[in-house]
Amino acid sequence: MSERPLHGVDVRPDYLAGRRLERVVASWHLYGSESPSGPLDVWLIDSEAVSTRITIGSDWCLIAEASAPFAGYDMAESGRVEVAPVSGETPFADHLGETVLAVSQGSIPDSGRIALEITFDSGRVRCETWSGDLRLSSK
User: Fold this and answer.
1) How buried is residue 87: exposed, middle or buried, by Cβ count under 10 Å (0-12/13-18/19+)?
2) Cβ(71)–Cβ(112) under 8 Å?
3) CA–CA separation, 57 and 75 (whole Å)
4) Which residues, in sequence order, are CB contacts of 36 under 8 Å at separation 6+?
5) How confident is the model at residue 38 (pLDDT cuts 50, 70, 90)?
6) Is the pTM of this model over 0.85?
């Protein structure tokens, strides 16, 4: 674990290697009838029943922390945040039931972690920060 100045303790998610991805939960900001652009947070729940949250900190650093999914909430005129299991909404859905083979990280000095790549038998999912947003992609 490492201490981040703006968001506290962070974990090294390489402990996921060797564990099976059982469930994926995500949070989405919904506003009116607009479609959500991407998840705010993603929780990977593994075969050890550990829930790893991947999100972006206020310093735009990619955060990985052991944390259970929270309940959605209403933000009045600013919309609402919904939290729910995913089916096909993120690249992780394609790897449900698969074992994590490897986890690699990318970071830059003074900014911390900016990317996380999780490798499965059938491909990889890259998590990265982009202008303060969480971006997920398949490889």
Assistant:
1) exposed
2) no
3) 20
4) 28, 29, 30
5) confident
6) yes
Tokens of residue 84, six digits:
């729910």
Amino acid at the residue 11: V
Instruction: Please state, in angstroms and rounded to a whole number, the distance separating the CA atoms of residues 40 and 26.
Output: 7
45 has pLDDT over 60:
yes
State the maximum Cα–Cα separation within the chain, in Å, rounded to a whole number: 44
The domains of the chain are located at 2-138
Q: Is 108 exposed, middle or buried (0-12, 13-18, 19+ CB in 10 A)?
A: exposed
Structure tokens at 7: 């968001």
Cα distances from 59 to residues 11, 13, 54, 92, 111, in angstroms, run 17, 19, 14, 25, 8
Q: Which residues have C-beta within 8 Å of that of residue 106, sequence separation ≥ 6? A: 113, 114, 115, 116, 117, 128
Whether residue 2 has pLDDT greater than 50: no
